[in-house]
Amino acid sequence: MTFDDLHIGSILVSTVRNAPVLIFAGMAGLFAERSGVIDIGLEGKILASAFVSAAVAFTTQNPWYGVMAGMLVSVLLATLQAYVAISQKGNQLVAGIAINIAMSGLTFVVAQYIFQQGGRTPDLGSARLFDVVLPGSAAVENIPFLGWLYAHLIGGHSVLVYVAFLLVPLVHWVVYHSRFGLRLRACGENPHAADAAGVSVERQRYFAMLIAGALCSLSGAYLSIVQSGFFLRDMSAGAGYLALTAMVFGNWRPLYTFLGCLMFGFFGAVQIQIEGVELPVVGRLPGALIQMVPYVLTVIVLAGLMAKSVAPKALGTPFVKSR
């Protein structure tokens, strides 16, 4: 394969398919951090929900049971994280990192104990969520550009892809145009003022964490039930951290966070496309160097934008009610 063999269309389709993992996690982190709770534990919740979703989907041969089971586990982890960070006023960073480390090891051990396949689940086969074929796709497929646009870029994706993209305007409306969103932002910016106005800061933060757990579970379910068709140890590969970076890139705003997720999805697609390709001047790049691209980009984005990003003022600060 040479550089001329790269297809922009394939990269765009891969971008659309890569983005949902980051979009679900990015929106989850946005709810948590807008309420004032740092959610470093996205990675662990993605792993836990990915394993449980795959295990239950394989056992029941029903992918939707897997999605619901993964959501339940992620919400339970979010509740535990909220209890430590909100009720017990614990260190939010430590709580999140503890979840990440625990789930990285626990999912592997449980998968090995149950399935005896080296820490992975069996292939899901018919228990996967397959792609949706839009009406009329076959009729327009041969029309130049429009056929590809309708049948492959817009159509031909899993239901969870459409859920992810529709989630963005919904989250924007909730955060900026609903009473819940107003209280959420108040708790993240000035919790004492919110408390004085009669808002229960702890309750609001708990709700935010439960929503974050539910949304984050869809990232894990998408990884195992849609993209891979099985669970593999540490298969999230830093998606939770990339989602947090996209959120910083987006300045804790849904639409800009979505653009950050698309950016990382695009570079992930390019990374896959250029593996084994003879590039001009530099030739064929080592696979390890190509796999570094999203993470190097993360460091660059953080270094360039952290000074310009304005986080919620009460982010990471436990709320102690005034007497």
Automatic annotation (TrEMBL):
Q: Which domain of life is it from?
A: Bacteria
Predominant location: membrane
Q: Which InterPro entries match?
A: ABC_transp_permease
Q: Where in the cell is it found?
A: Cell membrane
Bilayer topology reads: Multi-pass membrane protein
Key words of the record: Cell membrane, Membrane, Transmembrane, Transmembrane helix
| Stretches that traverse the bilayer | 6-28, 40-58, 64-86, 93-115, 149-175, 206-225, 231-249, 256-274, 286-307
What name has this protein been given in UniProt? Answer: Nucleoside ABC transporter membrane protein
User: Carries keyword Disulfide bond?
Assistant: no
Q: GO molecular function terms here?
A: transmembrane transporter activity
Q: Which GO terms describe its cellular component?
A: plasma membrane
Where in this chain does the entry annotate a coiled-coil region? Answer: none
Q: Does the keyword Cell membrane apply?
A: yes
